[in-house]
Design brief:
alpha+beta, Nucleoside Triphosphate Pyrophosphohydrolase, 2 domains, 9-stranded mixed beta sheet, 3-stranded antiparallel beta sheet, 3 helices, 12 strands, about 40% strand, ADP-ribose pyrophosphatase YjhB (NUDIX family), hydrolase
């Protein structure tokens, strides 16, 4: 997908050289179409040495077991997104501990995926019946016998065998950046 008209004023876009790259830009105002992007999030919730997984109810990935997750809404923080997605897809309340992995997937709509380690807070796993057909906590041994998506298998290994706690939320940054949520090593 690509923009053909200015998202600010509606004028037809034309190609212009912006910092050495030909990009669609508005000849009337300052709008530049930088490209199509999406930001996805995923949760690695562990309870009693078992990982929370959901079975996907629709494509892409219908029938695969995955970690719960989804996409960020325009005005929603990344932290609020992952908390919401975990509860929607599995009925589990969890809080963010840190970021354990990032996937960069360049394609027509360039996707960035941020995987969070999360602390189980409350709830019994239940599928939402829309995005997930089943939900539960599973041991590494059980996961080996399940139809788990390859990317989820990789994330589980990263979370389980990680050499550090990952990027942690900076609760008291040295320099305050308004409206920014910061993570650091």
């Amino acid at each position: 997908m690509s923009a053909n008209f200015c998202l600010k004023c509606g004028t037809g876009l034309e190609f212009r050289d912006i910092d050495g790259t030909m990009r669609k830009a508005c000849p009337r105002c300052d709008f530049i179409f930088w490209g199509d992007y999406s930001v996805g999030v995923g949760a690695l919730v562990i309870k009693d040495e078992k990982f929370l997984l959901v079975k996907r109810a629709h494509n892409p990935g219908k029938g695969y077991w995955t970690n719960p997750g989804g996409y960020i809404e325009q005005l929603e923080s990344i932290e609020d997104t992952i908390i919401r997605e975990v509860e929607e897809e599995s009925g589990i309340k969890a809080k963010v501990k840190g970021i354990v992995a990032i996937r960069d997937l360049p394609r027509n709509i360039h996707n960035l995926y941020v995987a969070f380690s999360m602390e189980y807070m409350d709830g019994i796993p239940r599928p939402d019946g829309v995005e997930s057909d089943e939900a539960g906590f599973y041991s590494l041994e059980e996961i080996e016998l399940m139809n788990v998506a390859p990317f989820t298998r990789w994330l589980i290994q990263v979370a389980y065998h990680g050499e550090s706690k990952g990027l942690m939320k900076d609760k008291d940054p040295v320099v305050s950046l308004n409206d920014s949520i910061l993570f650091k090593v």
